[in-house]
Write a structure and sequence with these properties.
Elements lengths: L2 E5 L5 E5 L7 E3 L2 E3 L13 E2 L6 E2 L10 H11 L7
Antiparallel strand pairs: 1-2, 3-4, 5-6
The structure holds zinc ion (2 copies).
Length: 83
């Protein structure tokens, strides 16, 4: 989630989250996307389709965590290949 420097009413500067696609809402001190924001998926964890652990997707429809993606790439390689 990108941040920008905001200014509190008392004059102190504070980093606050912002979103290009919606007006983020502050709920209980946590920045939250508006309902239906197309960028909201970037800030929420999903359960990995392979191992079930929670991860943050780096691509829109990513279904497995990075660990599982890397595992898959390793097992797809020729076993004799050296690094
Ligand atoms: Zn948003
Ligand atoms: Zn996984």
């Amino acid at each position: 989630m990108p941040t920008r420097l905001g200014r509190r009413p008392n004059g102190t500067f504070v980093k606050e989250h912002y979103c290009d696609s919606c007006q983020m809402l502050g709920i209980n001190g946590l920045a939250c996307h508006e309902t239906g924001c197309p960028d909201a998926w970037k800030d929420y964890e999903k359960d990995c389709f392979e191992c079930g652990c929670a991860f943050r997707p780096t691509e829109r429809y990513q279904a497995v965590c990075l660990d599982c993606i890397e595992d898959k790439e390793v097992t797809d390689r020729d076993e004799d290949e050296t690094y």
